[in-house]
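Archive maintenance. Older records in this collection stored only the sequence; we are now back-filling the structure field for every entry so that each record is complete. The fields below show one back-filled record exactly as it appears after the update. Entries are processed alphabetically, and YheE family protein is next in the queue.

ARCHIVE ENTRY
Title: YheE family protein
Organism field: Sporosarcina saromensis
Length field: 67
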Amino acid sequence: MLQHFRFTPMFAGGNLPGWTFSFFYQQERFTGEYMPDGTIKWTSDVPSDEENVKKMIHELMTFHVYE
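Back-filled structure field:
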């Protein structure tokens, strides 16, 4: 489970070109960029369970941004 998930638009006043995000997973902090097409670019180390973490990020972004 992701904890303390936060996201912000890359630029003030708009959703494009994407969002920056951060969260804790298994007591480690991760950061990245979420693009409008769903692509994730990690700006920190990649989680060991990357595919599962990506699914959780997609669900959270869909719920909060695309609702």
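Update note: Residues 8 and 19 are 5 Å apart (CA to CA). The beta strands are 3-9, 19-25, 28-34, 40-42.
Entry marked complete.
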